[in-house]
Write a structure and sequence with these properties.
The chain has 267 residues and is α+β, with helices and mostly antiparallel strands. It is built from seven helices and twelve strands.
Length: 267
């Protein structure tokens, strides 16, 4: 896998297959934690050589575009966006330098692969069955992998993800263990409506978590402190892809974001 970035196009499929096999095994080996809601915790998502390339081949700040949704409400007073992103689809990364483009293309295709999706569905069965019933495995899931970058000042208040989403995955990409205290916080909702902190993920190299989106999956992030230059991660979201409305929405959103991205690059 250490030659991923130099593979010819016809060999890239094999690189994707090998990496997908490794990540699927990482998901299968992840710790299952019941409280405050069922979730998985990962210690080694990528092979060591691939993770080294993740760090070495990070895009430049100018390659990212603003993250919308809840993140938009946490821009700094001067308008600086505290969270930006790059969708890891071929049409979004095509303006990256060749070596970075080839590498992130493999990563993006891997995260969208069927073996990885099936591993998440298999391991998150308790949460998925709670929401979708005994036939949860038949529910369509549309993967959207994005590379995100947060800067000091970014935060997000306790929330449950939109019901358009079926599975939320975040893979942490720091270079070391210096700032493990800025990981995602999980909350329990009590009868009085309060949301005490019950667990916090460690923002550690090559780690992460995943959960099936439900009414009880309350989570947040404290403000990123000034000791951190960037808080890099991959957000892999599986949107519910069942029924005409959801199917059209998922694909229409991808096309719409592509158009906006092209306009941004041309400007």
């Amino acid at each position: 896998m250490d030659q991923t970035t130099t593979l010819a196009r016809h060999d890239r499929r094999r690189a994707v297959d090998r990496l997908a096999e490794f990540i699927a095994k990482s998901v299968d080996a992840a710790r299952a934690v019941e409280k405050p809601f069922f979730h998985l915790e990962f210690d080694r998502v990528f092979p060591d050589d691939i993770y080294a390339q993740v760090l070495a081949l990070m895009p430049e700040s100018a390659d990212y575009r603003p993250m919308h949704g809840r993140s938009k409400g946490h821009d700094l007073a001067d308008g600086t966006h505290t969270r930006v992103k790059i969708d890891l689809f071929p049409e979004y990364i095509r303006n990256l330098p060749a070596e970075k483009r080839a590498f992130w293309d493999v990563v993006g295709r891997t995260l969208c692969s069927e073996p990885v999706k099936q591993a998440f569905i298999r391991r998150l069965a308790p949460g998925l069955s709670k929401r979708f019933g005994k036939d949860f495995a038949q529910t369509g899931m549309y993967p959207i992998p994005i590379l995100t970058r947060d800067i000091p000042g970014y935060l997000i208040t306790p929330h449950t993800d939109t019901r358009w989403k079926g599975i939320t995955v975040q893979l942490y990409l720091p270079k070391d263990d210096a700032n493990t205290d800025i990981g995602t916080i999980f909350h329990e909702k009590l009868p009085d409506g309060s949301l005490p902190k019950k667990a916090q993920m460690r923002f550690a190299p090559n780690s992460g978590y995943a959960f099936a989106v439900g009414q009880d999956t309350w989570h947040s992030a404290d403000p990123v402190h000034n000791r951190v230059k960037t808080r890099d991660s991959i957000l892999l979201t599986y949107f519910v892809d069942q029924g005409v409305l959801k199917i059209l929405r998922n694909r229409g959103k991808r096309i719409g974001n592509f158009v906006l991205n092209e306009i941004r690059h041309r400007i």
